[in-house]
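Long-time lurker, first post.

We've been arguing in lab meeting about whether zinc ion would sit comfortably in this protein at all. Half the group thinks yes, half thinks no, and nobody has a model to point at. So I'm putting the question to the forum: if I give you the sequence and the SMILES, can you give me back a predicted structure of the complex? Inputs are below. Any interpretation is welcome too.
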Amino acid sequence: MVIKNKLIQQTVLLLAVLSVTDLFAENSKAYINGSIHTFDENLTVADSILVKDGIIQRVGSQADVLDNTDESTEIINLQGRMMMPSFHDAHAHPIWNGMDFLQCSVFDLLSINAIQERIRDCLEEDHVKTSGWVIGAGLNAGLFPAANPNKSLFDEVSKDIPIYIEMSDGHNALVNTKALELAGINKETKDPFKGIIERDPVTGEPSGTLREPSAMNLVADVLPTETPELRLNGLLYAQSLASSFGITSMIDAAVNEAYLISFRELAERGELNLRVTACIEYGRQHYVQEFSGFEDIYKRRSEFEHARINSNCVKIFIDGVLEGQTGAILEPYLDSGSYGQLYFTQDELNNAIASFDANGTQVMTHAIGDRAVRSVLDAYQHAIETNGISNNKHHISHLQLIHEDDIPRFSELNISANFQAAWALPDEWITEINIPELGIERVNRMYPIRSIHDAGGTIVGGSDWAVTTMNPLIAIETAVTRQDPSNRVEGTLNEKERMDLTEMLKAYTINAAEVMHQGDLTGSIEVGKFADLIILERNLYEIPLMEVGEVRVIETVLEGTTVFRID
Ligand SMILES: [Zn+2]
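Top reply:
Settle the argument with this. Predicted structure of the protein with zinc ion, as tokens:
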């Protein structure tokens, strides 16, 4: 606090004595003696760069850059360290999940005891004492057969305090008996549209697991109201995490009006350290945006535009997830014979996407199963046939299963493949859930990143935080090894889909910048672009691939300003 006040005083003083040009000169920085991977078209590696007023002025040799400095330029010696464009996270939920981390977070807990222990601790925390509810997220579905935990897990912790914890995939939740009672969910309650209330096979009583938003939202009405303050604090939590991982641009993959207001508020205060594409959720099932209110928000989307916020994007969920069998697949689930579910008929989807496309709005979609992927590719194709080729840069996220006939279509239709590469390893989601329900042949085709790339498709990278870590380097290591970066689980998932390091770094920089409609402003280190940069502890090209995920970002620069540094 003291330091901050001093800085403010100094700035006032400077403003008093310096002309505008001098102030710009104040912002001049030369980074010299580095291994600067520019990710320009030729993948140039430079020694030095000059930045003025947040914009890259020169990229080249140390002599050339130093020739263009003056006495006000701050010279930063990189001491041979690797510098590169800062990361873009093309799929995250900074507000939705940021709030979870301020409540009862059980992310990364790998035993039932640890989860119960954590929830017991939550009972003593202020947020529970004030609201009377334990609300949280991060439950690992892979710990339970068929991803179907029972309410007894939470009843053992409390019978009096209602407990609602979402699974880390965001598509399922577990509640205790008290929460079911308060929400009035009982034996007689019918499954809602496109949702599942799991039940005891003998008694028919709800067993605690609620699948997909329409079922999860049966509890929403009795949950304590979310406050603007909580949303803003959640966003600040996510933003500081992003800065620490070298992320300066992010696609929020499902927003409502309240989230847009939070982004705008932080931007207007001058404290938004992320360039954001905010995709407004559209769909009859809803996570954050009520379907009934969609048209109104969509019409007013430009009200939320800001130099750092692009709100001309819509997010559509095409299907659910494979755990819980709501993901839509072409061949049935082995145990149940079910084909999963699509949230739209083909006509509905075709019409929706064609009309957004005609309005010049980007459409980001969630598709997990091969039937969902085909359906949404068909809809994008229909939009091209109706409107002609656009520059709207539509993209599909997740892509767990893709039929081989559909792999070339990403390139043909110019649809980017937005992968969450941190999922492409044989962890318990794969071994305990996917192999039993789909069989090994389909599991061995999952997350075909290399196949799409080799067929000419554009790969972009995103975390889907908080489903998995926001750290891009962990996802990148997983994409190049298809193994667990933490070595907790053994084995390789579908070795032939291993990607190149450079291609994955492009997925998190220039490719994602293009998808965010800012490829001429960020994503590579080139003259005239914003100085959105990171400095890494070790050179990613000089270490074994198995160590990429351990490398720390030691400084993150957004538009010439340091937003994170390890001292
Ligand atoms: Zn998501």
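For your lab meeting: The radius of gyration is 24 Å. The chain has three domains: 2-80, 92-220, 228-254+319-526. Whichever side wins, do check it experimentally.
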